[in-house]
UniProtKB/TrEMBL annotation:
Record-annotated LOB domain positions: 5-106
Protein name per the record: LOB domain-containing protein
Domain of life: Eukaryota
Family stated for the protein in its record: Belongs to the LOB domain-containing protein family.
Alphabetized PANTHER family for the sequence: LOB DOMAIN-CONTAINING PROTEIN 12, LOB DOMAIN-CONTAINING PROTEIN 4-RELATED
Length: 163
């Protein structure tokens, strides 16, 4: 594997790349930046230990994961990967609120078009806009959506709009 040119790890660590070098399959010489980052964040000997504890077929995934985490830690020294995860979770929450409000609007428009007896429930708000839900229904929706981190709960939100 090593051939004449040492792997990126051995090159950086200035050591001889042996035939059974644990880094060689995952840190090729043409991508020195990958190992440099992983080494800076985790340390070469820690990475070596982690890889030794894994069966060979899982090592490539582990190296990808370590490289991703090292990258995230470099660009966000405080939160690392967690920064990206919480940013995405916030986005999911905000989109769930928007979805719930859009579904409520759609239902409202459908009810107005169908001119069903449900119109009896319709009430005028203070601005004179007709809206079939009272403010507490909307408040409920706003409270439900941000706490759900799972899109699987979305049917529950839809059900509560129909009530
Ligand atoms: Zn090597």
């Amino acid at each position: 594997m090593a051939g004449n040119s040492p792997c990126a790890s051995c090159k950086l660590l200035r050591r001889r790349c042996s035939k059974d070098c644990i880094f060689a399959p995952f840190f090729p010489p043409h991508d020195p930046h990958k190992f440099a980052l992983v080494h800076k964040v985790f340390g070469a000997s820690n990475v070596s230990k982690m890889l030794q504890e894994l069966p060979f077929h899982q090592r490539a995934d582990a190296v990808s994961s370590l490289a991703y985490e090292a990258n995230a830690r470099m660009s966000d020294p405080v939160y690392g990967c967690v920064g990206a995860i919480s940013y995405l979770q916030n986005q999911v929450s905000q989109l769930q609120v928007q979805l719930a409000l859009a579904q409520a609007e759609i239902l409202c428009i459908q009810m107005q078009q169908e001119n069903t007896p449900l119109l009896d429930y319709q009430q005028m708000d203070t601005d004179g806009n007709s809206f079939p839900f009272n403010n507490s229904t909307v408040t409920q929706l706003m409270n439900i959506a941000p706490s759900t981190n799972n899109i699987a709960q979305e049917p529950f939100i839809r059900e509560s709009i129909r009530i």
